[in-house]
Design goal:
The chain is of the alpha+beta class and 186 residues long. It has two domains: 3-66, lambda repressor-like DNA-binding domains (434 Repressor (Amino-terminal Domain)), CATH 1.10.260; 79-181, Jelly Rolls, CATH 2.60.120.10. Helix content is 25%, strand content 29%. The protein is built from five helices and nine strands. It has helices at 3-17, 22-29, 33-40, 48-57, 62-66, and strands at residues 84-87, 92-96, 107-113, 129-136, 138-143, 146-151, 155-159, 164-168, 174-181. A six-stranded antiparallel β-sheet has the order 1-2-3-9-4-7, with no helix packed on it. The mean pLDDT is 84.
């Protein structure tokens, strides 16, 4: 398989994993469905501009399609190599717990909340589901109008389309393992 064929195959595989049609890509990327189909079948090479538009329309970057894909179906990550995202205003740090599995359907995160810092009152909503397992401390999860107090070892699973938020209500750091569907990207 030459590079042109490999790029096209990756685009098609990624598009199908996202449940997108050629017409969806045409609308989002402003690249004709016919041209995208030709790229996917290896009949033509995409221009850098077209590839960038297609990648953006599918919520990824160009590198995903052009880098050599020596990606394993197994993810092993040392603690020191985890990606992290901090939200200092409400004392939260998210750590990724997996990487490099092609087209993941879920994400696995460790969430650490500082004591004494309250999350702003806004809640988030999105498609999918979330599951959390508290591994240290005490956490309050707010889903809609309901509040749930979770201690070490307790879990919660909910539809993420309901407004939800979390906060540390203990006096020490609190941690939880969070699984999200669809994936949350750090």
């Amino acid at each position: 398989m030459n590079n042109k064929d490999a790029i096209g195959a990756r685009i098609k595989q990624f598009r199908l994993s996202k449940g997108l049609t050629l017409k969806d890509i045409e609308v989002k990327a402003k690249v004709s469905a016919t041209h995208v189909s030709e790229i996917e079948r290896g009949m033509t090479s995409p221009t850098v501009g077209a590839l960038a538009k297609i990648a953006e329309a599918m919520g990824t970057d160009v590198a995903y399609f052009v880098e050599k894909q020596n990606v394993s179906k197994v993810s092993v990550m040392s603690k020191s190599k985890r990606k992290k995202m901090q939200f200092k205003e409400w004392g939260a740090t998210y750590f990724s717990l997996a990487k490099d599995v092609p087209n993941p359907k879920t994400s696995f995160l460790e969430v650490e909340l500082e004591p004494g810092i309250k999350r702003p009152e806004e809640t988030s909503t999105h498609d999918g589901e979330e599951l959390a397992i508290v591994t240290k401390g005490v956490m309050e999860i707010i889903i809609g109008d309901e509040k749930y107090i979770l201690k070490e070892g307790d879990c919660i699973h909910y539809k993420a389309s309901k407004p939800h938020a979390m906060r540390n209500i203990g006096d020490a750091k609190c941690r939880a393992i969070w699984i999200t569907l669809p994936p949350f990207s750090l």
